[in-house]
Amino acid sequence: MSNVKPLGGDVYEIDTRMAGYAGITAGYLILSDRPCLVEPGTSGSAPTVQRALTELGVGAEDLATVVVTHIHLDHAGGVGDIARMYPRSEIVVHEKGARHLADPERLMRSARMVFGDLLEPLFGELKPTDAARIRAVEETGEIDLGGGRRLHSHHSPGHAKHHVGLLDSLTGDLYVGDAAGIYIPKTADVRPATPPPDFDLDTALASLDKFQALRAQRLLFAHYGPVDAVSDTLERSAEELRIWVDAVRDARDQGLDLDHAVAAVQERTLGRYKAYGPDADPELAEKYEMLNGAASNVAGIIHSLDKHA
To answer: Half-sphere exposure (CA, 13 Å, Cβ side) for 28?
Structure first.
C-alpha cells in the first residue's frame, strides 16, 4: 500500500513510518515548480521518504527545498540523510535550530540521555548538513515555491523555541508542526505536546493566537494529517493546554512527584480523548503514548512552572 496521499493543491501527504508505525508522523511534498518537502521525519524514515518522492516523480536533482518546523528528531532527524540524497536542495530552519543541523553532536548527546537504547530504533542518528546549504529564518521568512507561490514562515515558540509555522500562499494550508499539539485522525482528538525543556504556556498560547490570525484554510499536522476545522481545532488545542497545566500546577502545589502528577492529569482528562477511552483500540493509545507520552508532557510542564517560580 502506498504511503502517499494526495491532498489537493499539488500537496501530498507522506506517511514517514517512524519506527515502522503507520499514521503517526507525516511529511508533506508541495509539488510546485520548485518542489518542497516539509518535515522529512526521522533518519530511519529517509529511505521511505525517498521512495515516496520517486513515486511522485521527484528525482535526486529535482527537490528545491527541505523545510522543518523545528529540530526535534521526529521532524528533523532525517535532514542530513535527505540533504545527501537531494544535493541541490536548500535546508530551511529557524535560526535557533540552524547550528544543530550543521553540528548535531550536542543535540544527539542530549537525545541519548533522554531516550537511551530507544534512540536508535525510534529515530536513528541525525547526520550533519553542510552549513552552506542551511538557510535560517527569523521571526518571519519566505520560501519560493515557484510560479509566484510561497511558503511564509512564522516563528511560533512555546513547544520549542526553534519552532515555525508555515503558510502556503496558494492553498492557505498552515503547517503547524507540534505547536497545535497532536491530532489523532481516527478519533479527532487533540492532545498537547509539552516536552521539556522549552515548553511555556503563555508563549504557546500566543503562537496559537498568531495561527488564528493567519486565517488558514486548513491545518496540516505533522502528527497527523489535514484538518479543515481550523478555528475550532486551534481553540481546542489552547483549551487542552490550559487543562493540563492547571492539573500539573495543582499537583505541584500539593508537593506530588512526577508519577502522581501524571496520574492527576489522567484523572482530570478522563473522557476527553476517545483514543484513550474504555472502548478505544489499545494499539492506537499505545502508539500515541510512545510518540507523545503523558510523563514527558508533564515533565515539560513541571520544568516550565519551576522556571517561572
So the answer is: 28
Whether pTM exceeds 0.90:
yes
Dist. CA 21–CA 152, nearest whole Å? 30
Q: Which residue has the cell 522529512?
A: 40
Dihedral angle over CA of 84, 165, 153, 6, nearest 10: 60
- The number of residues in the chain equals 309
| Cis peptide, bond prior to residue 192, ω within 30 of zero | no
Domains of the chain: 4-238 (3.60.15.10)
CB-based contact 19:44 (threshold 8 Å): yes
Candidates 242, 249, 243, 244; CA nearest to 306 is 249
Q: How distant, in Å, are the alpha carbons of 49, 175, 208, 230, 248 from that of 213?
A: 32, 14, 9, 11, 29
Give the model confidence (pLDDT) of 94-117 as tens digits. 999 999 999 999 998 988 888 888
Distance CA 276, CA 269 (A): 10
35, containing H or E segment? none
Beta bridge partner(s), residue 93: 136
Residue whose C-alpha cell is 511522485: 56
